[in-house]
């Protein structure tokens, strides 16, 4: 059992980034900020916050399982081209990323609970409205814009914000666990949603997503807390108590200001470039187009969706393991290995697609699952190393590049299928891009000291 390490002196040098302790902090090993004694041996509240965050991301992840299942049904019912449907998905993915840095800044202004509760409500409304759509522009508006904006506020920047505020020790591990929550949501919902689509149509599946998102809102509002100081605690692994900072005004100005400052540095562009390729090769390609590509080769939709769910199983294992590795090994080298292995696996995929599931395909699914979002913990760690207190917002912008890459390939994949009659060219191109990402990761250098980005006029 993990106990409250604020009452211990064990801490590795790599667990505490420079700049976390602020002048004027006081040691609080035996009492809260209000003087209330702590009960020895109690599990630190940070772990309960992490659990609520995990469950929240799982509930929101239901919507991410659906786009790949809708391409064929919407094409058949409305006679929309795959490129048109792919465009709606690309709008969703792009807004998912572009909203993230502003959401991180809004969490600093209004608190995590308010932002996340509103985001889940928007996801639910957008998904529900698709049930009554009759034109392609409505798909773009409801699924692309509304669900995209809501999901962007529930993006990995949410996990990064919770980790940065509540944890000093075990940050890599917690990042891996929270990142894996998205895969867990896919695991929970994808087989059921594919069954609904195949036997009852796409509308019940869309309603299920809406209900899943709104059902999480009470848990967020009642159980989530914005900062350790709200309950009179230091962050997990911290030796000093940090008072809760006041609201940071000008969320949009701060998000843009952090971008301008970070964009002057080389590591930002390398991280953004590698993460764009990450998004292109996962959310944009496999999550969106694997099911219709497998169906093109005669595989039933339910079987193809079940394979994606298996990716979700091993994604959990791979991401948590990656967080553990990130606490112990150099992050940029981990990224290079992850991208190189992913590229090799994508080059073999066109040869593995068949009407039935066979052992080589299962090997690909397991391998790709382990690597799916293993890139997230080392990417967040590199943002933290280079940009300090602004790392959550910087990661939000890096995540924006991830989703722009995903959006481009979600659209291009649909167009390629319409033009060439298959997805083969997209698999090969993505494999080559992953090789380039591996080389880019190796170019990133570790900073001599951790210095947060300073934005003029922003506290």
UniProtKB/TrEMBL annotation:
Q: Where is the signal peptide?
A: none
Sorted alphabetically, the keyword list is: Membrane, Transmembrane, Transmembrane helix
**Membrane topology, record value:** Multi-pass membrane protein
Name the Gene Ontology molecular function terms of this record.
transmembrane transporter activity
Q: Where in the cell is it found?
A: Cell membrane
Q: What is its main location?
A: membrane
Q: Where is the composition biased (Low complexity)?
A: 24-37
Keyword Transmembrane in annotation: yes
Q: Where is this region: Disordered?
A: 1-37
Q: Where are its TM segments located?
A: 46-71, 83-103, 115-135, 141-160, 172-193, 205-224, 268-286, 298-325, 337-355, 361-382, 394-413, 425-444
Q: Where is the composition biased (Polar residues)?
A: 1-11
Task: Supply the name of the protein.
Answer: MFS transporter
Species of origin reads Streptomyces liangshanensis
């Amino acid at each position: 059992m993990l106990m409250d390490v604020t009452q211990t002196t064990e801490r590795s040098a790599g667990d505490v980034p420079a700049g976390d302790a602020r002048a004027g902090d006081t040691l609080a090993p035996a009492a809260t900020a209000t003087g209330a004694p702590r009960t020895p041996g109690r599990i630190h509240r940070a772990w309960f916050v992490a659990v609520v965050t995990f469950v929240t991301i799982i509930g929101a992840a239901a919507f991410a399982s659906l786009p790949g299942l809708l391409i064929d049904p919407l094409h058949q019912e409305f006679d929309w081209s795959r490129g048109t449907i792919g465009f709606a998905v690309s709008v969703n993915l792009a807004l998912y990323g572009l909203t993230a840095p502003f959401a991180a800044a809004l969490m600093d202004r209004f608190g995590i609970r308010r932002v996340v509760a509103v985001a889940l409500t928007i996801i639910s409304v957008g998904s529900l409205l698709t049930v009554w759509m009759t034109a392609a522009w409505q798909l773009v508006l409801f699924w692309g814009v509304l669900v995209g904006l809501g999901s962007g506020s529930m993006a990995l920047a949410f996990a990064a914000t919770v980790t940065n505020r509540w944890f000093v020790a075990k940050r890599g591990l917690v990042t891996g666990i929270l990142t894996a929550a998205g895969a867990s949501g896919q695991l929970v919902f994808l087989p059921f949603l594919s069954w609904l689509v195949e036997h009852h149509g796409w509308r019940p599946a869309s309603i299920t997503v809406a209900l899943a998102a709104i059902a999480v809102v009470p848990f967020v509002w009642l159980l989530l807390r914005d900062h350790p100081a709200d309950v009179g605690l230091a962050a997990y692994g911290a030796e000093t108590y940090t008072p809760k900072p006041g609201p940071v005004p000008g969320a949009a100005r701060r998000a843009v200001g952090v971008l301008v400052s970070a964009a002057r540095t080389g590591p930002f562009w390398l991280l953004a470039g590698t993460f764009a390729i990450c998004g292109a090769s996962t959310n944009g390609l496999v999550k969106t187009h694997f099911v219709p590509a497998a169906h093109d080769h005669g595989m039933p939709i339910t079987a193809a969706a079940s394979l994606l769910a298996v990716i979700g199983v091993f994604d959990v294992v791979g991401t948590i393991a990656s967080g553990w590795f990130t606490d112990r090994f150099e992050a940029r080298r981990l990224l290079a290995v992850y991208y190189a292995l992913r590229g090799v696996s994508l080059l073999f995929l066109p040869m593995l697609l068949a009407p039935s599931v066979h052992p080589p395909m299962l090997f690909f699914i397991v391998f790709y699952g382990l690597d799916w979002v293993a890139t997230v913990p080392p990417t967040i760690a590199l943002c933290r190393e280079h940009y300090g207190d602004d790392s959550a917002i910087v990661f939000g912008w890096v995540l924006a590049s991830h989703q722009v890459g995903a959006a481009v390939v979600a659209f291009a994949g649909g167009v390629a299928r319409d033009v060439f009659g298959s997805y083969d060219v997209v698999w090969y191109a993505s494999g080559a891009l992953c090789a380039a990402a591996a080389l880019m990761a190796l170019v990133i250098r570790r900073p001599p000291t951790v210095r947060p980005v300073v934005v003029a006029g922003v506290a």
